[in-house]
Amino acid sequence: MCIRDSPPPYNTMMRRTIMQQCSYDMVVMGAGSGGLECGWNAAMMYGKKVAVIDTQKVHGIKPDYAALGGTCVNVGCVPKKLMMTGALYREHMKDAAGFGWNVPDLVGDWKKLMAQKDKAVLDINKSYEGMFNDKLVFVQGFGRLAGPNKIEVMDTNDRTKVVSTLDAKNIVIATGAWPYNPPFEGIEHTISSNEAFYLPEAPKRPLVVGGGFIAVEFAGIFNGYKPKDGKVTLCYRGDLFLRGFDADLRASLATQMTAGGVNLMFNENPAKVELLPDGNKKVTFESGKTEIYDVVMIATGRKPKTTGMQLAENKVELNKNQGVVVNEKNATNVAGVYALGDVIDKVMLTPVAIHEGSILAGN
Description:
By secondary structure, the protein is α/β, with parallel strands linked by helices. The protein has helices spanning about 10-20, 35-45, 70-75, 75-95, 110-130, 195, 215-225, 245-260, 350-360; strands at about 25-30, 50-55, 135-140, 140-145, 150-155, 160-175, 175-180, 205-210, 235, 265, 270-275, 280-285, 290-295, 295-300, 300-305, 335-340. Helix 8 links the parallel strand 9 and strand 10 (about 265).
C-alpha cells in the first residue's frame, strides 16, 4: 500500500519518494457521503484500487469543519437533527403541564448538548475509518489537480506544501459546498452554520438571516436553548420563508414559531454589521432599522467548494457559482475527471450525492 495513515518506520525522504510513485484506478477528492459511496463501491464491488483524499478524519473546527462523512455527518444533517430534537423537548415539557405534570422551570444545558453532539459525530467518524483497507486507502491532506491524471496532496495545515503526488486513471471531485456569505459591510462579524455547531454558549439574542430550512431550524434550536431573558430573531428578505414548500405549511409554521417566542422579520435584510466594544453586533437593515444582537448567523445558501483545487488552471469547466459542470454521466469536459454531489451545484442533498456516487462507480 503506497500511503498509510500510520506509515512504517522508514525515513521521511524514502516514504515521500514511495508516495510520489503511487498510482490508482480512482482517486476521490472529498470524503463526504457521495465520495465515500463512489470510492467504496469502486473498490469493494468492482475490485479497483482507490484512494480518498480529505483534510481530516474526525470532526473539529480546524481546518475545514468537516471530516469523514462530509458536511451531513459533521456540520449538517446529523448534528442539526440531534440539536433540533433537544430543542423540541422544551415544547414537549411545556405541553406536559396541560396533562397533569408539574413541570419545573426549563433550563437547557448547551454545553452538555454540544458534548453529546460531538460524541455522536465522533462515533460516526470512527465507524467510517473501518471502511479503509488495502483496496480503499485514505490519504490525509488537501487535493488539487496537477495535470492530466495527476493530483497533488497538500499538507492539511499548510496548503503551500506538497506532501505527495498521486496518479489516477479516473479522478472524482466530491468536495461538497461551503456556506455563502453575502457581500455586505461587516460580514466578517457574522457566523455561518459551521460555527454555530461549535458555539461555546447558547446565544442570548441571536439574529438568524435566511429563509431556507437551515435558517428556520437554527432559529428553533436557539429558541429552545436560549436563556430565560433571551430573544431569537429570524429575518428574511421575502414575504414568507421556505419558498417552494407547501404554502399552508409555511404559514402554519410561521404562526407556531411566533407563538413559541421567535421574532419573525419578513421583508428585511441586513445592510451592515458593526462590532461593538462589548462584543455585541449592531445590525443596520436595508430599511434603516437598527438592532443589537450577540450573534448574527448567516444562512443564505451554499456554494460549491472548489477554491484552491486548480480546476480552472487544468481546464475543468466551472459555472458562475464555481460549481463543476458535468454531463448526464457526471463527466466533466476533461477526460478522466468526474464530479458529483454538492460541488456540481445542482440538488444539494445527501441521498442525491450517494446515488450519484453509486452510479458513477458502476460506470
